Amino acid sequence: MTHQSALPAKVKIVEVGPRDGLQNEKEALSADVKVDLVERLARAGFVNVEAAAFVSPKWVPQMATSAEVLARIERRPGTIYSALVPNMQGFEAALAGGADEVVVFGAASEAFSQKNINCSIAQSIARFEPVARAAKEQGLRLRGSISTAFGCPYQGEVPLDTVGDVVARMRDLGCDEIDIADTIGVSTAKKTQAVMLRAAREFPIAQLAGHFHDTYGQALANIYAAMEVGVAIFHSSVAGLGGCPYAKGATGNVATEDVLYLMQGLGIETGVDLDQVVDAGLFISQQLGRKSISRAGNAIAAKRAG
Ligand SMILES: CC(C)(COP(=O)([O-])OP(=O)([O-])OC[C@H]1O[C@@H](n2cnc3c(N)ncnc32)[C@H](O)[C@@H]1OP(=O)([O-])[O-])[C@@H](O)C(=O)NCCC(=O)NCCSC(=O)C[C@@](C)(O)CC(=O)[O-]
Hints:
- This protein has 306 residues and is an alpha/beta fold.
- The chain has a single domain, classed as Aldolase class I (TIM Barrel).
- The chain is built from twelve helices and eight strands.
- Strands 1-2-3-4-5-6-7-8 form an eight-stranded parallel beta barrel, surrounded by eight helices.
- Helix 9 links the parallel strand 7 and strand 8.
- Helix 2 runs antiparallel to helix 11.
- The protein is globular and about 55 Å long.
- The chain binds 3-hydroxy-3-methylglutaryl-coenzyme A (HMG).
């Protein structure tokens, strides 16, 4: 395997807790709490916070407050607020709500595409085409997200060339950034590098993002491995919140606090204040009535408490 071993000097962390993290919660959280969370995260220094999803409220009830959340957050200059949109109906809502970036989300597995967005991969790309055109016309950033790129809960193995094919289709839509997602957290370091390098044959590696769930405890190792081959954008979720409603047993994204602790130790710049993220993690965990899943977050909180 060919790979560059120098780690990046700087990475971009996209905070996805308010969307990916909260979409799977059973208890509905108020818009007030979500607004508070998004504002805390933006103040901590993230340049990109995924704050909303304009999807069917029948499919994902937790995201039903997205319009209210986007309307009410106090915008921090320099922060991009993103929203997931599966179709034009979602796009119109995201535009009206003032999203800076829209995220079309597909999959590298036919079975997952059907379960998650009720259509085939080809149909999803056809739905994304008008969204992509409209995003460009309106001057919004366009991101593409590819679920199950490392394995599918229904289909199992996902061929590398299928990932490459979906990356190429997202590229042709005009995506500014493409997320390679380990929806069910099954990847390990070597596989991560193989998938990222295959994706990079279709799209510049500097614009690829690693979106790792931590189901098997491999997310930090996967991030390190992805950095070794040149990936420098990662998604994470404060307090390790999350899971996908259409991937049974999938746990949350890698915890942001753990990623920031790793980057700090490696001397890699993120522009994000770890202490403020720990506070945001304690806040949302308290609102949810449970302990944070972040190991670093809990350790820092325990140390503070003496
Ligand atoms: C895509 C659809 C809408 C298709 O669902 P459908 O039922 O095929 O859609 P439809 O066009 O036939 O419409 C049916 C109903 O949905 C409504 N509808 C239609 N579109 C919208 C919209 N945009 N916003 C609000 N409502 C909408 C539409 O108005 C209609 O309402 P009704 O007439 O029955 O009252 C549905 O399957 C859906 O909403 N799925 C959501 C899936 C989802 O949000 N999954 C979680 C996010 S993806 C994820 O977490 C993975 C990721 C990104 O994190 C990466 C990773 O880790 O893998």
